[in-house]
């Protein structure tokens, strides 16, 4: 082999070995970011609570969406 070919192969090998660790680090960072995004999506779901009301001496409850400010479903007799 001539010196030019050896030198080119050496440069190619050097560049390839320098790029490999960078690719694996980028992949790891992307995995961490995707996990963080997945956790955020889970916590942004609707938040509900029961609201209570007395009508004619009877207790009723109804599901209320706190984030949208709207009731879900109908009033349910508790007692």
**Count of helices?**
1
Mean pLDDT: 76
Structural class: alpha+beta
- Cα end-to-end separation: 94 Å
Shape: rod-shaped
Order of helices and strands: HEEE
Explained architecture:
The radius of gyration is 31 Å and the shape is rod-shaped. The chain folds into two domains: 44 residues; 30 residues, no CATH class. It has a three-stranded antiparallel β-sheet, with no helix packed on it. The chain has 79 residues and is of the alpha+beta class. The mean pLDDT is 76.
What are the SSEs and their pairings?
Layout: H1 3-43, E1 48-55, E2 58-65, E3 70-77
Antiparallel strand pairs: 1-2, 2-3
Characterize this entry briefly.
With 79 residues, the chain is an alpha+beta fold. It is 52% helix and 30% strand. The chain has 2 domains: 1-44; 48-77, no CATH class.
Summary keywords:
rod-shaped; alpha+beta; 1 helix; 2 domains; 79 residues; three-stranded antiparallel beta sheet
């Amino acid at each position: 082999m001539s010196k030019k070919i050896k030198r080119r192969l050496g440069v190619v090998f050097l560049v390839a070995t320098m790029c490999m660790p960078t690719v694996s680090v980028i992949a790891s960072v992307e995995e961490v970011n995707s996990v963080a995004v997945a956790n955020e999506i889970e916590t942004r779901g609707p938040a509900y609570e029961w609201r209570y009301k007395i009508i004619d001496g009877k207790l009723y409850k109804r599901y209320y969406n706190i984030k949208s400010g709207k009731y879900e479903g109908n009033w349910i007799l508790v007692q």
